[in-house]
Amino acid sequence: MQVGNVTTPFGRRPVSLAQIKGQMRTAEIRPGKAADKWKVFRDACEARAVLGIQDRALAVLDALLTFYPDNELCEDRSLVVFPSNDQLSVRAHGIAGTTLRRHLAALVDAGLIQRKDSANGKRYARKDETGAIEEAFGFSLAPLLARAEELAHAAQQVAAERKRFRITKEALSICRRDVRKLISAAIEEGAAGDWERIEEIFLGLTGRIPRTPTIADLQQIIEEMEMLRAEIINRLEIQENSEDTGSNAVQNERHIQNSNTESSNELEPRSGNEQGAKASQTSRPTSEPIKAFPLGMVLKACPAINDYGPGGAVGSWRDLMSAAVVVRSTLGVSPSAYQDACEVMGQQNAAVAVACILERAGHIHNAGGYLRDLTAKARRGEFSLGPMLMALMRANQGAGRKAG
Predict the structure, then answer these.
(1) Whether residue 388 is found in the same domain as residue 323
(2) How far apart are CA 67 and CA 87, in angstroms?
């Protein structure tokens, strides 16, 4: 039975408190516990980055496991193997002696094996009269058995992280392709807009992708890349809507004149049903709404708007639009200015614009005039929220890094 007594290494090798703790843990292996040695080895290979060991060290561990006669590591059997360095070197594909010793030390430090040295440091087994091993000195594989579940969990986490990284990388590749082709199409077909500046933003984003990116690097860039894609699509939709509106200019002029008779006491934007009902009464056209940016991105760029949501948080677009009405009043934006923004940009995008203004309230002297200016530019197809949101997101991320 594996008792797991604490032992110290032979010669000048030191022992650490972590190694002593590991030896004590192996002494607590439950009776009868067993684990497939190759399954545990595969888990250790999968979790090698977490364990901090190299591939060559795993090759040495593989060689050590071949000296254990059974496929299952069992608590009720001796878990000590005692090959010589020459034998280990052969099974580890001819690894040099100094390299072998270095990787054995790495396996000990990682808590995957333990040294059980004899009085003179030699590795051997002492057998009884029947030929059964009575005592063995060499390397104990007990830590692998004791940590079998831990290694399996670590391997699952690494696999899940790798999958998440792969999915994120694929999503970035697709988004990057979309943006590149949308910009090219807009330039080639002469779509109105400052496409050179947008292309500069795109090239800046792609230039920030590291040669060996982490999941955090990719997530930060894909958020901005997705926002840029939404920005481009919004611009193209604005232009399309403007062209559709221009083809009915005479009819629109009459509708606008009819709309001027509406009461100036309308304080807040109407709901979609109310707008539809009013339009049917006055023949006032409503342009096709522009798609809004993802709510999660908006809240990352404009976290201050959360304080004005129902219950002090914004969890949906309805919450954001309710918060924008409160902020509109707080910033001194007139109901007519906000109503005009809703009609031109759509209620969701108007709410986003108000959230952006709130985020930069300390730098904006007249919030109402600023919103009217944005609305006028949006009406002419010269404004989209994308650059503003991207700038705010970068500013917030920079502030977070400084605070950290």
Answers:
(1) yes
(2) 10
Q: Taking Cα atoms as reference points, which of 247, 266, 268, 248 lies closest to residue 256?
A: 248
CATH code, domain carrying 24: 1.10.10
Domain end call among 87, 122, 153: 153
pTM for the whole structure: 0.56
Contact 113, 57 (CB under 8 A): no
* Domain carrying residue 127: 17-153
Can you tell me the distance from the alpha carbon of 367 to that of 360, in angstroms, rounded to the nearest whole number? 10
Same domain for 344 and 333, yes or no, is: yes
CA–CA dist 230, 227 (Å, integer): 5
Claim to verify: residue 35 and residue 114 sit in the same structural domain = yes
Tally of domains within the chain: 3
List the pLDDT tens digit at each of the 404 positions of the chain: 344 466 766 556 666 666 666 666 666 677 888 999 999 999 999 999 889 999 999 999 999 999 998 899 988 788 889 898 899 999 988 888 899 999 998 998 888 998 887 777 788 778 777 767 778 888 989 889 988 999 999 999 999 999 999 999 999 999 999 999 998 888 888 887 778 888 888 888 888 888 888 998 898 888 888 888 888 887 787 666 655 555 554 444 444 444 443 433 333 444 443 444 333 333 333 344 455 678 888 888 899 999 998 888 898 888 999 899 989 888 888 888 998 998 888 888 899 999 999 988 888 888 999 999 999 988 887 777 877 888 888 887 766 555 55
